[in-house]
């Protein structure tokens, strides 16, 4: 039976795939996005509404969006904090406000996309912030299901794109010996299972969403190197402290932060591990998720995949190069190139006297500003 479903985080990797999957199954999807202008060109099968979790921290903020909604799926999540995106707000305060509004309007069911590791052993702020929202939902009067995924991968997944970029290197850095375990689940299996949760019997439960087999970080890179056609798998083991230092440096590289899932906190999470038994998943949904190795084998890397992997880590260098050109031009124009020479170049255009000095230093200043802005 078609339902009217509100999906938060609809512009993210998991949320956007849930929107696509559930709308094609005939459900009426209301997708919450931060910038609605980007989605006005899409079909009428999905209703997009503007919603910024930073400003939806009270239950009253959610009530208008929940009008005539049957079920809610909260798929908002960030792996790293920024100046405008904080774990405490996006993972805790806003979801709790959403759950309170759902309870007030007696929404039939709430599905919370949390994270594997958001339990009693949680140490990272990422996991702890998710856990607080989970606990709030558990203590409510709502019918709820909490999904606890390991790494979710598939076309468009930023974290896996970064792993592919690292795998494309001649020598790939590892955290220690790369023995940290993950249990990736493909986005198609993730969406297929969530679709079943809408109608499945048995609410008020936590479900681990994991692939059929755990793989170490090193094994993940070996598989990706084979997929990309890298002839030899060479690795550079880094100490835990060295990995943390590299993560801190990467945080400030322009062009990398947007696609880099590795931070000091995610390295701590990797060390803790992200695995669980797949048996409860198989028993509940009656299918076994595709393994990471089989997924790669069924979708051979195309030339575009190989180029994207190789060029992704060059992004900071390209940004620095363009910025350097503007900054260098500004410095040369203002301080190194003879002013008389610059004035002679401007004279044929009728720019002379004090106006030539204003033009020289003015445009030099603009060059410097553009260079800094690019960074």
From TrEMBL:
Parts of the chain that traverse the membrane: 312-335, 355-374
Native source species: hydrothermal vent metagenome
Protein name per the record: NAD(P)-binding domain-containing protein
One Pfam family hit: NAD_binding_10
Signal sequence segment: none
Stretches assigned to coiled coil: none
Keywords: Membrane, Transmembrane, Transmembrane helix
One GO molecular-function entry: protein-containing complex binding
Limits of the NAD(P)-binding domain: 9-151
UniProt entry tagged with the keyword Transmembrane: yes
């Amino acid at each position: 039976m078609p339902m009217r479903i509100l999906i938060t985080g609809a512009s993210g990797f998991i949320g956007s795939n849930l929107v696509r999957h559930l709308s094609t199954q005939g459900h009426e999807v209301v997708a919450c996005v931060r910038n609605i202008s980007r989605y006005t060109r899409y079909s009428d099968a999905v209703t997009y509404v503007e919603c910024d979790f930073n400003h939806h921290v009270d239950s009253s903020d959610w009530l208008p969006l929940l009008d005539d909604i049957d079920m809610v799926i909260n798929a908002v999540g960030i792996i790293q904090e920024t100046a405008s995106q904080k774990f405490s707000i996006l993972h805790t305060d806003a979801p709790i406000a959403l759950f309170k509004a759902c309870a007030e309007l007696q929404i039939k069911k709430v599905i919370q996309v949390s994270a594997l590791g958001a339990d009693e052993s949680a140490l990272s702020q990422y996991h702890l912030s998710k856990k607080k929202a989970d606990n709030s939902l558990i203590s409510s009067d709502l019918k709820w299901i909490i999904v606890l995924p390991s790494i979710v991968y598939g076309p468009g997944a930023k974290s896996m794109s970064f792993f592919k970029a690292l795998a494309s290197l001649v020598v790939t850095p590892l955290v220690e010996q790369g023995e940290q375990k993950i249990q990736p689940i493909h986005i198609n299996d993730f969406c297929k299972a969530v679709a079943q949760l809408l109608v499945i019997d048995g609410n008020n439960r936590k479900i681990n969403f994991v692939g059929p087999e755990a793989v170490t970080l090193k094994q993940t890179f070996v598989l990706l190197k084979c997929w990309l056609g890298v002839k030899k798998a060479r690795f550079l083991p880094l100490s835990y402290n060295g990995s943390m230092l590299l993560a801190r440096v990467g945080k400030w590289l322009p062009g990398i932060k947007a696609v880099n899932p590795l931070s000091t906190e995610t390295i701590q999470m990797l060390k803790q591990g992200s695995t669980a038994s797949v048996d409860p998943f198989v028993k509940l949904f009656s299918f076994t998720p595709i393994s990471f190795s089989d997924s790669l084998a069924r979708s051979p890397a195309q030339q575009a995949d190989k180029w994207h992997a190789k060029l992704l880590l060059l992004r900071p260098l390209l940004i620095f190069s363009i910025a350097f050109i503007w900054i260098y031009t500004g410095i040369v124009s203002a301080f190194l190139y003879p002013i008389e020479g610059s004035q002679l170049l401007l004279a044929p255009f009728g720019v002379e006297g004090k106006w030539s000095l204003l033009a020289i230093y003015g445009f030099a200043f603009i060059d410097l500003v553009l260079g800094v802005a690019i960074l």
